[in-house]
Amino acid sequence: MSNAQYLWSAAMGLRTQVRPKVEDSAALGALDNGIRILTAVANALEPATGQIPAHFSAFPLADTDRQGGPAENAAAYRDTGAAIADAAGRLSSGAALSGLGDAIRWEKSLLDSAIARMDAVERALPPAVEADDQAIDPARLQAYLRRRPGCEGAILSAFRLIVGGRSRQTAIFSVSGADALPAHMVIQRGIPGQAGSAAFLSEIAQYRLLTQLHAAGMRVPRPVLVEEDPAWLDAPFLLVERVDGAPVQPDYWLPAESEQIVLGLAREMALLHSQPVESVGDGLRQARERYDVDGWRAELEQLAAQWEGAAHWPSVTMSAVIAWLRQNVDCLDDRRAIVHNDMVFHNILADQDRITAVLDWEQAAIGHPGEDLGYCYPVVIAVTDWSRFMDAYRAAGGADIPQRQIDYFALRAGLRLMHLVMHGGRDSFEKGLSDDILVASAGAHFTQRLLHRIAMILASVLERDA
Protein backbone atom coordinates (compact mmCIF):
# COMPACT_ATOMS: atom_id res chain seq x y z
CA MET A 1 0.00 0.00 0.00
CA SER A 2 1.36 3.43 -0.95
CA ASN A 3 1.81 6.43 1.35
CA ALA A 4 -0.81 8.20 -0.77
CA GLN A 5 -3.41 5.57 0.08
CA TYR A 6 -2.76 6.08 3.80
CA LEU A 7 -3.34 9.81 3.42
CA TRP A 8 -6.52 9.39 1.36
CA SER A 9 -7.87 7.03 3.99
CA ALA A 10 -7.02 9.46 6.79
CA ALA A 11 -8.66 12.36 4.97
CA MET A 12 -11.82 10.36 4.27
CA GLY A 13 -12.00 9.17 7.89
CA LEU A 14 -11.68 12.71 9.21
CA ARG A 15 -14.45 13.89 6.94
CA THR A 16 -16.93 11.06 7.54
CA GLN A 17 -16.23 10.09 11.15
CA VAL A 18 -14.80 13.15 12.91
CA ARG A 19 -16.28 16.17 11.20
CA PRO A 20 -19.95 15.39 11.96
CA LYS A 21 -19.13 15.46 15.69
CA VAL A 22 -17.32 18.83 15.68
CA GLU A 23 -19.52 21.80 16.56
CA ASP A 24 -17.05 24.63 17.20
CA SER A 25 -16.81 26.79 14.05
CA ALA A 26 -13.10 27.57 14.43
CA ALA A 27 -12.32 23.88 14.89
CA LEU A 28 -14.40 23.05 11.81
CA GLY A 29 -12.46 25.56 9.77
CA ALA A 30 -9.14 24.11 10.87
CA LEU A 31 -10.37 20.56 10.22
CA ASP A 32 -11.68 21.37 6.72
CA ASN A 33 -8.42 23.00 5.71
CA GLY A 34 -6.43 20.16 7.24
CA ILE A 35 -8.40 17.70 5.10
CA ARG A 36 -7.67 19.81 2.02
CA ILE A 37 -3.94 19.81 2.78
CA LEU A 38 -3.95 16.03 3.23
CA THR A 39 -5.53 15.55 -0.19
CA ALA A 40 -3.06 17.94 -1.82
CA VAL A 41 -0.07 16.10 -0.35
CA ALA A 42 -1.62 12.75 -1.21
CA ASN A 43 -1.81 13.82 -4.85
CA ALA A 44 1.91 14.54 -4.80
CA LEU A 45 2.58 10.94 -3.72
CA GLU A 46 0.05 9.23 -5.98
CA PRO A 47 1.52 6.86 -8.61
CA ALA A 48 0.33 7.24 -12.18
CA THR A 49 -1.04 3.67 -12.25
CA GLY A 50 -0.11 2.85 -15.81
CA GLN A 51 -1.43 6.04 -17.40
CA ILE A 52 1.92 7.12 -18.86
CA PRO A 53 1.84 6.94 -22.70
CA ALA A 54 4.48 4.73 -24.26
CA HIS A 55 6.59 7.61 -25.63
CA PHE A 56 6.86 9.11 -22.09
CA SER A 57 7.43 5.88 -20.16
CA ALA A 58 11.22 5.80 -20.48
CA PHE A 59 11.75 8.78 -18.15
CA PRO A 60 13.26 8.13 -14.70
CA LEU A 61 11.62 8.89 -11.37
CA ALA A 62 11.62 12.60 -10.56
CA ASP A 63 12.08 14.52 -7.32
CA THR A 64 8.89 16.54 -7.57
CA ASP A 65 9.35 17.67 -3.95
CA ARG A 66 12.55 19.53 -4.74
CA GLN A 67 11.45 22.81 -3.12
CA GLY A 68 9.99 21.31 0.01
CA GLY A 69 6.26 21.53 -0.64
CA PRO A 70 3.51 19.88 -2.68
CA ALA A 71 3.67 20.74 -6.36
CA GLU A 72 1.03 23.07 -7.76
CA ASN A 73 0.84 20.49 -10.53
CA ALA A 74 -1.14 17.58 -9.08
CA ALA A 75 -0.18 15.52 -12.16
CA ALA A 76 3.53 15.62 -11.29
CA TYR A 77 3.93 12.31 -9.51
CA ARG A 78 7.27 10.66 -8.93
CA ASP A 79 6.87 8.59 -12.10
CA THR A 80 5.37 11.34 -14.29
CA GLY A 81 7.32 14.38 -13.15
CA ALA A 82 10.34 13.96 -15.42
CA ALA A 83 8.22 13.45 -18.54
CA ILE A 84 6.10 16.48 -17.65
CA ALA A 85 9.22 18.59 -17.09
CA ASP A 86 10.62 17.50 -20.46
CA ALA A 87 7.45 18.36 -22.40
CA ALA A 88 7.03 21.66 -20.55
CA GLY A 89 10.65 22.53 -21.25
CA ARG A 90 10.21 21.89 -24.97
CA LEU A 91 7.19 24.20 -25.07
CA SER A 92 9.07 26.87 -23.15
CA SER A 93 11.91 26.57 -25.66
CA GLY A 94 9.63 27.31 -28.59
CA ALA A 95 8.30 23.91 -29.68
CA ALA A 96 4.97 24.09 -31.53
CA LEU A 97 1.81 23.53 -29.53
CA SER A 98 0.51 21.21 -32.22
CA GLY A 99 3.47 18.91 -31.81
CA LEU A 100 2.87 18.41 -28.11
CA GLY A 101 -0.89 17.94 -28.13
CA ASP A 102 -0.55 14.41 -26.72
CA ALA A 103 1.44 15.71 -23.75
CA ILE A 104 -1.08 18.48 -23.07
CA ARG A 105 -4.00 16.04 -23.15
CA TRP A 106 -2.09 13.51 -21.04
CA GLU A 107 -1.39 16.00 -18.26
CA LYS A 108 -5.03 17.09 -18.27
CA SER A 109 -6.16 13.47 -17.89
CA LEU A 110 -3.90 13.13 -14.83
CA LEU A 111 -5.32 16.36 -13.41
CA ASP A 112 -8.85 15.08 -14.04
CA SER A 113 -8.04 11.99 -11.95
CA ALA A 114 -6.40 14.02 -9.17
CA ILE A 115 -9.34 16.40 -8.82
CA ALA A 116 -11.81 13.49 -8.91
CA ARG A 117 -10.00 11.98 -5.89
CA MET A 118 -10.13 15.32 -4.08
CA ASP A 119 -13.83 15.68 -4.88
CA ALA A 120 -14.53 12.24 -3.43
CA VAL A 121 -13.13 13.39 -0.09
CA GLU A 122 -14.47 16.94 -0.08
CA ARG A 123 -17.99 16.32 -1.32
CA ALA A 124 -20.53 17.82 1.09
CA LEU A 125 -17.91 19.91 2.87
CA PRO A 126 -19.19 23.47 3.33
CA PRO A 127 -16.89 26.44 2.66
CA ALA A 128 -14.07 26.69 5.17
CA VAL A 129 -14.79 28.58 8.37
CA GLU A 130 -11.89 30.61 9.65
CA ALA A 131 -11.25 31.70 13.19
CA ASP A 132 -11.09 35.43 13.80
CA ASP A 133 -8.96 36.57 16.71
CA GLN A 134 -9.65 40.25 15.98
CA ALA A 135 -13.41 40.28 15.59
CA ILE A 136 -15.24 43.56 15.12
CA ASP A 137 -16.53 44.76 18.49
CA PRO A 138 -20.27 45.58 18.22
CA ALA A 139 -20.18 47.65 21.44
CA ARG A 140 -17.54 49.97 19.99
CA LEU A 141 -19.45 50.22 16.71
CA GLN A 142 -22.63 51.09 18.60
CA ALA A 143 -20.78 53.81 20.56
CA TYR A 144 -19.46 55.23 17.29
CA LEU A 145 -22.92 55.34 15.70
CA ARG A 146 -24.43 57.05 18.76
CA ARG A 147 -22.13 60.02 18.20
CA ARG A 148 -23.78 60.74 14.85
CA PRO A 149 -26.74 63.17 14.57
CA GLY A 150 -30.07 61.36 14.74
CA CYS A 151 -28.45 58.15 16.02
CA GLU A 152 -28.06 58.95 19.73
CA GLY A 153 -30.35 56.07 20.72
CA ALA A 154 -28.94 53.48 18.30
CA ILE A 155 -29.07 49.90 19.57
CA LEU A 156 -27.29 47.12 17.65
CA SER A 157 -28.68 43.59 17.54
CA ALA A 158 -28.24 40.31 15.64
CA PHE A 159 -24.55 41.11 15.09
CA ARG A 160 -22.85 38.27 13.20
CA LEU A 161 -19.43 37.93 11.57
CA ILE A 162 -19.31 36.67 8.00
CA VAL A 163 -16.25 34.65 7.03
CA GLY A 164 -14.63 35.59 3.77
CA GLY A 165 -11.60 37.27 2.29
CA ARG A 166 -8.18 37.76 3.79
CA SER A 167 -7.99 41.56 3.34
CA ARG A 168 -11.28 42.66 4.95
CA GLN A 169 -13.55 41.58 7.81
CA THR A 170 -17.32 41.63 7.35
CA ALA A 171 -20.29 41.48 9.72
CA ILE A 172 -24.05 41.94 9.38
CA PHE A 173 -26.25 43.53 12.03
CA SER A 174 -29.55 45.28 12.72
CA VAL A 175 -29.99 48.68 14.31
CA SER A 176 -32.95 50.30 16.03
CA GLY A 177 -33.47 53.72 17.61
CA ALA A 178 -31.69 55.52 14.78
CA ASP A 179 -34.00 56.97 12.15
CA ALA A 180 -31.03 58.25 10.17
CA LEU A 181 -29.79 54.73 9.50
CA PRO A 182 -31.19 51.73 7.62
CA ALA A 183 -32.58 48.99 9.86
CA HIS A 184 -30.20 46.34 8.50
CA MET A 185 -26.58 46.99 7.57
CA VAL A 186 -23.24 45.42 6.75
CA ILE A 187 -19.87 46.58 8.01
CA GLN A 188 -16.61 45.90 6.19
CA ARG A 189 -13.40 46.68 8.06
CA GLY A 190 -9.74 46.44 7.18
CA ILE A 191 -7.57 43.99 9.12
CA PRO A 192 -6.17 45.77 12.22
CA GLY A 193 -2.42 46.21 12.00
CA GLN A 194 -2.27 45.08 8.37
CA ALA A 195 -1.01 47.67 5.91
CA GLY A 196 -3.25 48.31 2.95
CA SER A 197 -2.16 46.99 -0.43
CA ALA A 198 -1.97 49.21 -3.50
CA ALA A 199 -3.94 46.48 -5.29
CA PHE A 200 -6.97 47.04 -3.03
CA LEU A 201 -9.25 50.05 -2.88
CA SER A 202 -9.44 52.00 0.35
CA GLU A 203 -12.77 52.23 2.15
CA ILE A 204 -13.28 55.82 0.98
CA ALA A 205 -12.59 54.85 -2.66
CA GLN A 206 -15.08 51.98 -2.41
CA TYR A 207 -17.67 54.33 -0.90
CA ARG A 208 -17.33 56.76 -3.80
CA LEU A 209 -17.45 54.01 -6.41
CA LEU A 210 -20.48 52.27 -4.89
CA THR A 211 -22.32 55.58 -4.59
CA GLN A 212 -21.95 56.20 -8.32
CA LEU A 213 -22.69 52.63 -9.38
CA HIS A 214 -25.80 52.51 -7.20
CA ALA A 215 -27.00 55.78 -8.76
CA ALA A 216 -26.35 54.32 -12.22
CA GLY A 217 -28.72 51.42 -11.51
CA MET A 218 -26.23 48.68 -10.78
CA ARG A 219 -27.27 46.14 -8.20
CA VAL A 220 -24.75 47.01 -5.53
CA PRO A 221 -25.28 47.71 -1.82
CA ARG A 222 -26.16 51.33 -1.07
CA PRO A 223 -23.27 52.89 0.88
CA VAL A 224 -24.28 54.55 4.15
CA LEU A 225 -21.09 55.96 5.65
CA VAL A 226 -17.34 55.53 5.66
CA GLU A 227 -14.82 56.11 8.44
CA GLU A 228 -11.11 56.48 7.69
CA ASP A 229 -9.92 57.09 11.25
CA PRO A 230 -8.72 53.73 12.68
CA ALA A 231 -9.18 54.97 16.24
CA TRP A 232 -12.82 53.88 16.34
CA LEU A 233 -12.51 50.20 15.36
CA ASP A 234 -8.73 49.79 14.97
CA ALA A 235 -8.98 50.09 11.17
CA PRO A 236 -10.98 52.08 8.59
CA PHE A 237 -14.45 50.72 7.84
CA LEU A 238 -17.40 51.07 5.47
CA LEU A 239 -21.10 50.64 6.23
CA VAL A 240 -23.63 49.71 3.54
CA GLU A 241 -27.30 48.88 3.60
CA ARG A 242 -27.93 45.15 3.76
CA VAL A 243 -29.42 43.62 0.61
CA ASP A 244 -31.84 40.71 0.52
CA GLY A 245 -30.53 37.49 -0.96
CA ALA A 246 -27.97 34.78 -0.38
CA PRO A 247 -24.63 34.03 -2.05
CA VAL A 248 -25.27 32.40 -5.41
CA GLN A 249 -22.46 29.90 -4.91
CA PRO A 250 -20.37 30.03 -1.70
CA ASP A 251 -17.93 27.50 -3.18
CA TYR A 252 -15.50 29.35 -5.45
CA TRP A 253 -15.12 26.34 -7.75
CA LEU A 254 -18.77 25.63 -8.45
CA PRO A 255 -20.95 27.40 -11.04
CA ALA A 256 -24.39 28.86 -10.43
CA GLU A 257 -27.34 26.51 -10.71
CA SER A 258 -29.54 29.00 -12.57
CA GLU A 259 -29.02 30.14 -16.15
CA GLN A 260 -31.08 33.25 -15.39
CA ILE A 261 -28.60 34.30 -12.73
CA VAL A 262 -25.72 33.74 -15.16
CA LEU A 263 -27.42 35.93 -17.77
CA GLY A 264 -28.11 38.46 -15.01
CA LEU A 265 -24.37 38.58 -14.39
CA ALA A 266 -23.93 39.56 -18.05
CA ARG A 267 -26.26 42.51 -17.49
CA GLU A 268 -24.44 43.72 -14.37
CA MET A 269 -21.06 43.34 -16.04
CA ALA A 270 -22.20 45.25 -19.13
CA LEU A 271 -23.57 48.06 -16.98
CA LEU A 272 -20.28 48.29 -15.10
CA HIS A 273 -18.18 48.30 -18.26
CA SER A 274 -20.32 50.99 -19.89
CA GLN A 275 -19.77 53.51 -17.06
CA PRO A 276 -17.67 56.53 -18.07
CA VAL A 277 -14.13 55.88 -16.91
CA GLU A 278 -13.31 59.59 -16.66
CA SER A 279 -15.96 60.29 -14.00
CA VAL A 280 -17.09 57.06 -12.33
CA GLY A 281 -13.58 55.64 -12.45
CA ASP A 282 -11.93 58.76 -11.05
CA GLY A 283 -9.48 57.73 -8.35
CA LEU A 284 -9.26 54.06 -9.35
CA ARG A 285 -5.85 52.62 -10.05
CA GLN A 286 -4.79 51.77 -13.59
CA ALA A 287 -4.35 48.00 -13.97
CA ARG A 288 -1.27 48.62 -16.13
CA GLU A 289 0.85 51.45 -17.45
CA ARG A 290 0.38 50.69 -21.16
CA TYR A 291 -2.46 49.18 -23.19
CA ASP A 292 -0.72 48.83 -26.55
CA VAL A 293 0.54 45.45 -27.74
CA ASP A 294 4.02 46.08 -26.32
CA GLY A 295 2.46 46.83 -22.95
CA TRP A 296 0.42 43.63 -23.00
CA ARG A 297 3.50 41.68 -24.08
CA ALA A 298 5.56 43.11 -21.20
CA GLU A 299 2.85 42.11 -18.72
CA LEU A 300 2.74 38.58 -20.15
CA GLU A 301 6.50 38.13 -19.85
CA GLN A 302 6.34 39.28 -16.24
CA LEU A 303 3.58 36.76 -15.45
CA ALA A 304 5.52 34.01 -17.23
CA ALA A 305 8.68 34.80 -15.29
CA GLN A 306 6.74 34.77 -12.02
CA TRP A 307 5.36 31.30 -12.75
CA GLU A 308 8.70 29.88 -13.89
CA GLY A 309 10.49 31.34 -10.88
CA ALA A 310 8.00 30.25 -8.24
CA ALA A 311 6.49 26.93 -9.38
CA HIS A 312 7.54 23.85 -7.41
CA TRP A 313 7.41 21.80 -10.60
CA PRO A 314 6.88 22.54 -14.32
CA SER A 315 3.54 21.98 -16.01
CA VAL A 316 2.79 21.14 -19.62
CA THR A 317 -0.47 23.03 -19.22
CA MET A 318 1.16 26.22 -17.95
CA SER A 319 3.92 26.14 -20.55
CA ALA A 320 1.29 25.62 -23.27
CA VAL A 321 -0.78 28.52 -21.87
CA ILE A 322 2.22 30.85 -21.94
CA ALA A 323 3.11 29.72 -25.47
CA TRP A 324 -0.47 30.31 -26.67
CA LEU A 325 -0.62 33.75 -25.05
CA ARG A 326 2.67 34.71 -26.69
CA GLN A 327 1.33 33.68 -30.08
CA ASN A 328 -1.91 35.64 -29.63
CA VAL A 329 -1.00 38.73 -27.60
CA ASP A 330 -1.30 40.91 -30.69
CA CYS A 331 -5.08 40.31 -30.74
CA LEU A 332 -5.48 42.77 -27.85
CA ASP A 333 -6.41 46.43 -28.16
CA ASP A 334 -6.43 49.61 -26.09
CA ARG A 335 -9.96 49.34 -24.72
CA ARG A 336 -10.59 50.53 -21.17
CA ALA A 337 -13.39 50.20 -18.63
CA ILE A 338 -13.99 49.89 -14.91
CA VAL A 339 -13.38 46.24 -14.04
CA HIS A 340 -14.31 44.38 -10.86
CA ASN A 341 -11.55 41.71 -11.05
CA ASP A 342 -13.44 39.06 -9.03
CA MET A 343 -16.95 39.18 -10.48
CA VAL A 344 -18.05 35.58 -10.08
CA PHE A 345 -20.72 33.84 -8.09
CA HIS A 346 -19.19 33.73 -4.60
CA ASN A 347 -19.33 37.54 -4.71
CA ILE A 348 -22.93 37.78 -5.91
CA LEU A 349 -26.17 37.72 -3.93
CA ALA A 350 -29.44 36.58 -5.46
CA ASP A 351 -33.05 36.06 -4.46
CA GLN A 352 -34.39 33.09 -6.40
CA ASP A 353 -33.33 33.78 -10.02
CA ARG A 354 -32.65 37.51 -9.60
CA ILE A 355 -29.28 39.06 -8.74
CA THR A 356 -29.69 41.47 -5.83
CA ALA A 357 -26.10 42.64 -5.29
CA VAL A 358 -22.56 42.41 -6.60
CA LEU A 359 -20.16 42.50 -3.64
CA ASP A 360 -16.47 42.92 -2.80
CA TRP A 361 -15.26 45.89 -4.85
CA GLU A 362 -11.85 46.18 -3.24
CA GLN A 363 -9.99 45.01 -6.37
CA ALA A 364 -11.82 47.33 -8.81
CA ALA A 365 -9.57 49.15 -11.25
CA ILE A 366 -9.35 50.65 -14.73
CA GLY A 367 -8.59 47.79 -17.10
CA HIS A 368 -9.78 45.99 -20.20
CA PRO A 369 -13.40 44.71 -20.08
CA GLY A 370 -12.12 41.37 -21.33
CA GLU A 371 -10.46 40.87 -17.94
CA ASP A 372 -13.84 40.43 -16.22
CA LEU A 373 -15.26 38.45 -19.14
CA GLY A 374 -12.32 36.05 -19.30
CA TYR A 375 -12.32 35.62 -15.53
CA CYS A 376 -15.96 34.48 -15.45
CA TYR A 377 -15.67 32.36 -18.62
CA PRO A 378 -15.11 28.92 -16.97
CA VAL A 379 -18.06 29.23 -14.56
CA VAL A 380 -20.35 30.64 -17.25
CA ILE A 381 -19.74 27.88 -19.80
CA ALA A 382 -20.47 25.30 -17.08
CA VAL A 383 -24.07 26.57 -17.12
CA THR A 384 -24.86 28.01 -20.54
CA ASP A 385 -23.42 28.62 -24.00
CA TRP A 386 -20.94 31.48 -24.03
CA SER A 387 -22.77 32.95 -27.03
CA ARG A 388 -25.92 33.36 -24.92
CA PHE A 389 -23.95 35.14 -22.22
CA MET A 390 -22.37 37.52 -24.76
CA ASP A 391 -25.76 38.16 -26.38
CA ALA A 392 -27.09 39.25 -22.98
CA TYR A 393 -23.94 41.30 -22.35
CA ARG A 394 -24.24 43.19 -25.65
CA ALA A 395 -28.01 43.67 -25.21
CA ALA A 396 -27.30 45.42 -21.89
CA GLY A 397 -24.81 47.82 -23.48
CA GLY A 398 -21.58 45.81 -23.40
CA ALA A 399 -19.10 46.09 -26.26
CA ASP A 400 -18.57 43.37 -28.86
CA ILE A 401 -15.42 41.67 -27.56
CA PRO A 402 -13.89 39.16 -30.04
CA GLN A 403 -13.71 35.53 -28.94
CA ARG A 404 -9.94 35.51 -29.39
CA GLN A 405 -9.66 38.22 -26.75
CA ILE A 406 -11.99 36.29 -24.43
CA ASP A 407 -9.75 33.24 -24.83
CA TYR A 408 -6.68 35.35 -24.09
CA PHE A 409 -8.15 36.86 -20.94
CA ALA A 410 -9.52 33.53 -19.70
CA LEU A 411 -6.03 31.99 -19.85
CA ARG A 412 -4.38 35.16 -18.53
CA ALA A 413 -6.77 35.14 -15.55
CA GLY A 414 -5.58 31.67 -14.55
CA LEU A 415 -1.90 32.59 -14.92
CA ARG A 416 -2.38 35.81 -12.92
CA LEU A 417 -4.40 34.14 -10.17
CA MET A 418 -1.83 31.35 -9.87
CA HIS A 419 0.84 33.95 -9.15
CA LEU A 420 -1.34 35.74 -6.59
CA VAL A 421 -2.04 32.51 -4.71
CA MET A 422 1.56 31.30 -4.80
CA HIS A 423 2.98 34.69 -3.83
CA GLY A 424 0.34 35.74 -1.31
CA GLY A 425 -0.52 32.35 0.17
CA ARG A 426 1.94 29.55 -0.36
CA ASP A 427 5.14 31.61 -0.11
CA SER A 428 4.14 33.33 3.13
CA PHE A 429 3.54 29.89 4.66
CA GLU A 430 6.67 28.20 3.34
CA LYS A 431 8.90 31.15 4.27
CA GLY A 432 7.65 31.03 7.84
CA LEU A 433 5.80 34.36 7.68
CA SER A 434 2.52 32.67 8.63
CA ASP A 435 1.55 29.35 10.16
CA ASP A 436 -2.16 29.88 9.47
CA ILE A 437 -3.75 26.64 8.27
CA LEU A 438 -5.94 28.62 5.85
CA VAL A 439 -2.83 30.07 4.21
CA ALA A 440 -1.29 26.59 4.06
CA SER A 441 -4.45 25.24 2.45
CA ALA A 442 -4.45 28.01 -0.16
CA GLY A 443 -0.91 27.16 -1.22
CA ALA A 444 -1.32 23.38 -1.29
CA HIS A 445 -4.93 22.89 -2.32
CA PHE A 446 -6.14 25.95 -4.23
CA THR A 447 -3.25 25.85 -6.70
CA GLN A 448 -3.96 22.23 -7.69
CA ARG A 449 -7.61 22.99 -8.39
CA LEU A 450 -6.66 26.17 -10.23
CA LEU A 451 -4.25 24.30 -12.51
CA HIS A 452 -7.05 21.87 -13.36
CA ARG A 453 -9.36 24.77 -14.23
CA ILE A 454 -6.66 26.31 -16.43
CA ALA A 455 -6.25 22.94 -18.18
CA MET A 456 -9.99 22.84 -18.91
CA ILE A 457 -9.93 26.38 -20.35
CA LEU A 458 -6.88 25.51 -22.47
CA ALA A 459 -8.64 22.41 -23.84
CA SER A 460 -11.60 24.58 -24.85
CA VAL A 461 -9.36 27.14 -26.54
CA LEU A 462 -7.28 24.55 -28.42
CA GLU A 463 -10.43 22.77 -29.57
CA ARG A 464 -11.62 26.06 -31.07
CA ASP A 465 -8.24 26.53 -32.76
CA ALA A 466 -8.25 23.06 -34.28
Automatic annotation (TrEMBL):
Source organism (scientific name): Sphingobium rhizovicinum
Domain Aminoglycoside phosphotransferase: 205-403
Stored InterPro entries: ACAD10_11_N, AGP_Transferase, Aminoglycoside_PTrfase, Kinase-like_dom_sf
PANTHER family associated with the record: AMINOGLYCOSIDE PHOSPHOTRANSFERASE DOMAIN-CONTAINING PROTEIN-RELATED, AMINOGLYCOSIDE PHOSPHOTRANSFERASE-RELATED-RELATED
This protein's name: Phosphotransferase family protein
A family per Pfam: APH
Highest taxon listed in the record's lineage: Bacteria
